[in-house]
Inverse folding.
């Protein structure tokens, strides 16, 4: 008797390092009652046959059909849930105008919890259907609507990390959309942390509160310091935007005479549970501070093509500075809710950074050589890198990790029996269509089925 709660037989792809993807062909994935992976059994292992014999004819056994594969559920490190209704809109504006003309008026509508529920249910369904099992969300300034978002995640089975956005500087934010005072912003954040911690007790996959200063330009110093204190007091995740765009990067230099990174650090906002979006303008010194504090980068390649004014040097951050990096869609700065789309864009953007784009420059001066990432590295960002960024046992198929998976079909792919499994993996990632994502599970709970 092996005592596993459930055994799943199938072929899976999972990152085993930043650059390598392991192919687990015909493995047995043995799960416990909490939905965690207790043991991986390879066909060459002694107990493989005996395990199959014990479970095969029982209701605790599942075999993934031929032509279908298991991938880890994806981890989206940067989503603005309230911006979902404007995905694909208004992307021709620069960041400052986009925020003030479109985004803040939309986010202000979430004082209405009925509207919030309608949008948040639609968004969580969409993300689950695209294989995204864990999401780090920005909400709005409204405590009630943020609670609705966390409840929607809890109910639908997504692992949601949700932040009440703080924008407390009356000089910097419109009167119709800002915290009424710094004191209130901090109190709402603290109450929200307590409420989400309570909700999490009754949620198998967990929901988590996140300390969320929108970005330095929208907050007072007192607010930022107070949020740093709350992050420490409750040992919770922290998120913000960091060094995104010429404008935002320069704003912080003009205000504090130093970078976002050093300012955030002084306010106590860089911890091993911090995830900072974008980071296109990190200096070597900033990157070293990220590593030393355990702070992670949420790379948002589609959004950055519109608002970033640069390509984040992911390759160097990962390999030279050993910073944790994952992927974010940045809905709606990024128009696509799909991490498949963002993996592809991460590869393409890195190649353009590597080679450069101005043909009038000589090839050796045109780009930043050593910048291109591979498809395997992009897959790492969407899975294992995201798990490490959040310091949670997710994003990999290995013992002790959560059974967060997507079952994908090769049915629509140009596969003619001549390709290796490694080549099949490449086609799956590059050519995936949403309808090929057949099932999605979070901690062994079925959350989406086609
Ligand atoms: N900086 C401050 N707020 C935002 C936002 O909502 N989206 C993006 N991309 N950048 C921001
Ligand atoms: Fe953002």
């Amino acid at each position: 008797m092996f005592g596993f709660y459930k055994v799943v037989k199938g072929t899976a792809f999972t990152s085993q390092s930043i650059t390598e993807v392991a192919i687990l062909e015909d493995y047995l994935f043995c799960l416990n009652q909490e939905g965690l992976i207790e043991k991986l059994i390879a066909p060459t292992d002694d107990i493989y046959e005996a395990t199959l014999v014990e479970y095969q004819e029982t209701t605790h056994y599942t075999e993934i059909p031929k032509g279908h594969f298991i991938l880890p559920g994806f981890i989206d490190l940067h989503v603005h849930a309230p911006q979902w209704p404007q995905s694909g809109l208004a992307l021709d504006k620069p960041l400052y105008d986009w925020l003030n003309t479109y985004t803040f008026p939309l986010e202000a509508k979430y004082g209405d919890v009925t509207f919030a529920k309608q949008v948040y249910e639609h968004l969580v369904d969409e993300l689950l259907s695209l294989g995204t099992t864990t999401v780090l969300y920005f909400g709005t300034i409204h405590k009630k609507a943020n609670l609705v978002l966390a409840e929607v995640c809890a109910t639908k089975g997504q692992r949601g990390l949700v932040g009440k956005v703080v924008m407390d500087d009356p000089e910097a934010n419109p009167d119709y959309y800002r915290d009424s005072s710094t004191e209130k912003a901090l109190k709402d954040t603290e109450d929200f942390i307590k409420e989400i911690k309570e909700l999490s007790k009754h949620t198998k996959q967990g929901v988590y509160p996140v300390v969320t200063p929108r970005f330095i330009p929208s907050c007072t110093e007192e607010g930022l310091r107070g949020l740093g204190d709350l992050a420490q007091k409750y040992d919770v995740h922290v998120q913000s935007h960091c060094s995104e765009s010429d404008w935002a990067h320069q704003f912080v230099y003009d205000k504090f005479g130093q970078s976002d990174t050093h300012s955030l650090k002084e306010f106590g906002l860089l911890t091993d549970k911090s995830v900072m979006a974008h980071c296109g303008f990190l200096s070597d010194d900033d990157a070293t501070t990220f590593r030393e504090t355990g702070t992670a980068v949420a790379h948002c390649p589609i959004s950055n093509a519109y608002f970033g004014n640069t390509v984040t040097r992911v390759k160097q951050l990962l390999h030279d500075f050993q910073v944790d990096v994952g992927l974010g869609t940045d809905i709606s700065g990024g128009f696509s809710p799909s991490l498949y789309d963002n993996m592809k864009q991460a590869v393409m953007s890195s190649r353009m950074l590597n080679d450069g784009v101005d043909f009038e420059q000589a090839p050796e001066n045109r780009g930043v050589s050593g910048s291109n990432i591979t498809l395997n590295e992009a897959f790492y960002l969407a899975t294992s890198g995201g798990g490490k960024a959040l310091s949670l046992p997710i994003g990999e198929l290995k013992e002790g990790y959560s059974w967060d998976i997507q079952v994908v079909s090769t049915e629509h792919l140009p596969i003619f029996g001549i390709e290796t499994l490694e080549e099949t993996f490449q086609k799956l990632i590059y050519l995936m269509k949403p309808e090929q994502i057949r099932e999605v599970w979070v901690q062994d709970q079925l959350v989406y089925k086609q």
